[in-house]
Amino acid sequence: MVDEITFEVLRHRLDAINDDAASILARLSGSQLAAEARDLNTVIMAPDGRVVCCGRYVLAQVVSMHLVVRDILAQYTDNPGIGPGDQFVTNDPYVGTLHQPDVVVVAPIIVEGRMVGWCGSTVHQPDVGGPNPGGITYDARSIFDEAVPMPPVRIVEAGRMRRDIEREYLARSRTAELNRLDLLGQVAANRSVVEQVERLCAQYGAETVGAVMDRLLERTELLLRERLRALPDGRWRHVSHVEYRPHGSAPGEPEAVYAVRLTMTKRGDDLELDFTGSDPQAPGAINAAYPALANFAIGSVLIYLCGGLPWVPGGVWPVVRILSREGTVVHAKWPAGVAMSTAATCQAIRVSVNSCVARMLETSEEFAPLVMASCQAAGGGGGTVHGLRADGTAYATMTLDEITGGGGATWLGDGADSSGYTTSPGASCANVEVNEAYLPLLYERRVELADTAGPGRHRGGAGTLHALSPYGTGTPMTMMSFGQGLQHPLAAGVCGGEFGGQSVVAVTPRTGTDDLAVAQGLPASEGWSLPMPSSTIQIGAGDVLISVSQGGGGLGDPLEREPSAVLDDVVNGLVSVAGARRDYGVVITNASEDSPVSADEAATERLRAERRRLRIGRSPAPRATGGRAGRRLSAALDLLPASSASAGTAVSGRNQRERDGVVACARCATVLCGAHENVHEHLVADDVSPAGRSPLGAVYAGGERFVVRHFYCPACAAQIDVQVCRVGDPVLAAIEVL
Amino acid sequence: MTAGSVRALIGVDTGGTFTDTVVTLSDGRLGVGKALSTPGRVEQGVLDSITRAAAALDLTLPDLLRRTAILTHGTTVGLNALLTGTGARVGLLTTAGFESTLPIAKANKTHGLDELDLGMPTRWRKPDPLVARADIAGVAERIDVTGTVVRPLDEDQARAAIRRLAARGVGAVAVSLLWSPVNAEHERRLVALVGEEMPGVHVSSSAAIAPVVGEYERTSTAVLDAYLAPAVGTYLSALRERLREQGFGGVLMILRTGGGAEPVEHTLRAPVNTLRSGPVAGLAATAGLARTLGRPNVIATDVGGTSFDVGLIIDGRTQRATRPMVHRHALAIPVVEVESIGTGGGSLAWLDHGLGTLRVGPRSAGADPGPACYGRGGTRPTLTDASAALGYIDRLGNAVELDVAAARAAIREHIADPLGISVVAAAEGIVRIAADQMRDLIRRTTVQRGHDPSAFALVAFGGAGPQYASWYADELGVLDVVVPDLAAELSAYGAVSSDLNIGAERGVVPTPLDRAGPLIEATLAELAGELDASLSAEVDDVVAASGRGRITHRTVALRFYRQQRSIELAVEAAAGPAELARLDATFRERYEDLVGPGSADARSVVEVVSVRVDLTVAVPVPPPVLRKPGEAEPTGARPAWFGGVEHRCAVHDWRRLPADARIEGPAFIESEQTTVVVPPLRQARMDPSGHLHLGHLG
């Protein structure tokens, strides 16, 4: 039995040891991905691989690193054996990494013959071989057109690096020197963890250290189950879309659409994530293998549900059941290509979990502070760039411009502007000067872009525009874009908030320095027709590459946003005067550069009333007086118990009775339907084209297949929900009472 | 020597609660003064504190000031303006198309958050903005990586932008353009235009203050500078005036974030350099101590009210932080590396019911109401309450009695009773957890950076460092644990013993070392010229007062291709092939020392990232009066608990302890401002200079 004080001392120590490993890694790494983007993470694991401590860099890289450890335990215990001082390297997405560029190195911690645990790290490598620089082949027919992954290999034996295996590992990379520094960093980081845990065991006993790990896992599981029990049971659904052109697609044919479909069910203290309804896999690139699904699903549960709880992913696992079918886009079957999973299907997985968890948390006033809309799910700047410098040397890397999209709105406030992915908390974009120092390019612009934030009572964080050209080199730059969310928005709002703005990636001829300002000023209604990025984009000396990172999702009905907050955004350039009117129904007057602006209260009042009338086609009912009744079904809906007359027949259990109840609008108290029905079918649904809010007015072919579906209360016109779906899709049962 | 010919040096350090003064006289005497800091009229606290130090030496304030050649001061006026959000309204001029550099903040939403906020994703947020987006104006211009003008500065547009900022009511202006470290022409011109359009307004130029590659950090630094400038400028000018009125005719020097001190005339040009001078002063004193003790490597530890700070002295020198931040804002100026955690005397102890653990910090009781034992209405237990409950301390500085009963009650109610353990066991648990957190931080700053603690001595200072040093210094295997004389006023002592240091630094486009010879030579020459031109007359006064000459250091910062950490090396000869080869070899050697054998791959390219010239003038402090050997005589005794057992503990007066006195634990050694706790099975030894050495018995 470990007392509270020793437990705290060892818990703190293990966290410190793990953090140190990340610092060692970042310091030794020579790659920009590790140094700037902090595209790395470290963990300490229990003897069976369950993650006990994890850093807060790129979460999805490590939360299920136990899959790698379990593979090693299952396959290598006898041959080649697992001994003190050994370390294993792998980049196999079918074993446990997200995709091939993520290289994992794990090491057992063995003290006096006893397995005390494991440690490990992941670093995103600039290049791991394969046909294309950067490790990703857009139109791969299978994984054999990508970098062929390396299963776990014992690269360090009893403390000594195997030179032959090191060579074999580095030989495949175009950036062997950088990969070597990262490998050394990963090996040194593991070594440091092993030594320090050994010392901890010498001081406190391996049993005590083991007991602390067990208790962290047990307590975390217990706490999460407690949190789940405090929430009503229910089922929630979300559909998110990925676009992709498989190899051999006919010219002119729009991208194929792959839907990720999640049904999340919470009963008692169990959480089930059912992805079995997702579309069949693509031939290559965008698929997620099971480890990527697991990593993103559990990582999302950590971020969106476990705020304030210990971040012990190994304790979350037993609570969450992931269901999937092999051969689908979320659970690819070998040898499907998977190298682009993280930027494509994994983001759809993340948004789906994000959205369903938010719907679940909305049912509780207590947990409302944890509700967060989706951060950017993509950015037009995502992708690898490569080419030749003036001196003929080659470069291949990512600009990291993508990591500047908006964060999701919360009940505590607006989403963080230009703050990057929530699932990569420690990641940074690179300085313009750093990119210009190492790459032959010149930026023309990097600014937060007005009207990209998902509108809402609290808005999402603003997204960002980047514009750059090849510079100081005679040869063009080639980009392989990962850009998703070009044809429709991806970053979901919550509680009736709008989606964050779409991604944009475009190459336009440079005709003058003010060219871009013109492009930016294009009224959305005019539209800017753009081709979808093909597998590789050439940016010549006379071209500008324009990219937009998505805004974050909003929270709540935008017509409920304080006009003064909208005015602040206008003054700060995050919302345009036209956007204030279009998205928030706020009328801004005196808007000129040199005079102060103000919100016209009376005109705003009138415009907002008119908007509400337009939403439902008649005069809206007033807001009800008094508090909310029944229990919350969502931020905007209440679940009222069945009337006493019909309740008499209810016999078994609380859930039975809940389905007998009715659903009412929380704003006007109008009863909408029975609790057993799909409430969305009883709301006013209004499908609008995503093009209306697309940044820069960008319109991509294929976008016409999608709509943004708004759901309004038929009585008071409150905006209750917003979804993105394909034209003609049936109404999703996004909220189901059990 | 007659009283009239005795010369004085003064060091004054303003902290959150107290302003400390240390005076050294040329006859070897020391005077110490302490006064409450006076927010709003900070200079009054400084004068009060100096007056008390003067009185301790039987002098009046004018008597002392008239014989003072150098007064060195560490101020928190700038830091306070930042922490309380009361700096200037800043307007920022930057390259058009890049107005969002500062708001984007490299997408940082978590760096610098405390542990509790880190665990709550809905609380992740950007650093608090120091400039409103509407007060950022783009200027039409562009320079490229080679310094070539791609787009000339549009002066008409720039003037219009400046006028717009003026109309919006900004009180200070920062200028930061892309690639200004490589070509500062546009930035200099803009500074001139601001001077014409907004006369009298402080302008901070990024190329002048922090000419390093990386526009976010450089812009952040320029904006911080502008934000603080009015507050720091007003204060320092007022202080200079008050001192002169009282007869001071010497040089007023101000401590710098990067170490050393500079004449106030230099500080007023770039007040951002005062931001983190508090911990730096303590480190400066420790560096001096390291020389006295003959220990080139020292771990400096400081336990304050809300934080625990650790800095390293290696080969007698402080270390430079890699990516410094202050209050989550990036700084691109040299900053002495000090690592901190939020564990201090005021840290709250609490039960984490979910995890089933006793936690200490990171939240703090603050100064008001403070720990329960302060008797100001605090009811939540803190680390200081644990020490009070265990009998380790029984009074606050200046003989304020502690309310031990309130401390025990707070621990009983919130910790002991819920856990079902005694108050003593709970209090000892709190001390142990806090000490372990402190030790974890020491390990991180040593072991994890490739330093072996067994090559270091550890120095404990600050009001509370001496209370906990025996615990947190344990298990590290350090050579010696030293509680220096004036432990509680060490920052003021650090001020008085700081050397003059003025530096000029320039970031260069990362260039492979073997091709960088001409670049290094040209940059060194330019920097030396700039430095010479910038020197105020006061520098000559310091040279005269110290009796020492100027020393110039030339350094380059080197790193492996694109790595995060660079290492500064001295340039010892003209940067020809031989010197470049020597630098390359030295870098690889140093790198392997830090990272491990075999880590410096021969194929890895070494690149130059910045070049620096420093001018230093040593300010020698007279040696202290040595103590005579003798036996320790306790002045009293009081009960205290160690390991659950109540002990009767001897109490000693630090001032009266003779050299070589050995005190066996359990015992306490008290000075006016601090208590050294010597637990059972430990001992303390006094050395002739007045420093205590802690160790195990036998």
Automatic annotation (TrEMBL), chain A:
Residues 3-558 form the Hydantoinase B/oxoprolinase domain. One of its GO terms (cellular component) is cytosol. It comes from the Bacteria. Transmembrane segments: none annotated. InterPro entries: Hydantoinase_B, Oxoprolinase-like. GO terms for biological process: glutathione metabolic process. GO terms for molecular function: 5-oxoprolinase (ATP-hydrolyzing) activity. It holds the Pfam family Hydantoinase_B. PANTHER family: 5-OXOPROLINASE RELATED (PTHR11365), HYPOTHETICAL 5-OXOPROLINASE (EUROFUNG)-RELATED (PTHR11365:SF23). This is Hydantoin utilization protein B. The gene is hyuB.
From TrEMBL, chain B:
Residues 10-192 form the Hydantoinase/oxoprolinase N-terminal domain. Residues 218-500 form the Hydantoinase A/oxoprolinase domain. GO terms for molecular function: 5-oxoprolinase (ATP-hydrolyzing) activity. One of its GO terms (cellular component) is cytosol. GO terms for biological process: glutathione metabolic process. Residues 567-695 form the Acetophenone carboxylase-like C-terminal domain. It comes from the Bacteria. PANTHER family: 5-OXOPROLINASE RELATED, HYPOTHETICAL 5-OXOPROLINASE (EUROFUNG)-RELATED. This is 5-oxoprolinase. It comes from Nonomuraea cavernae.
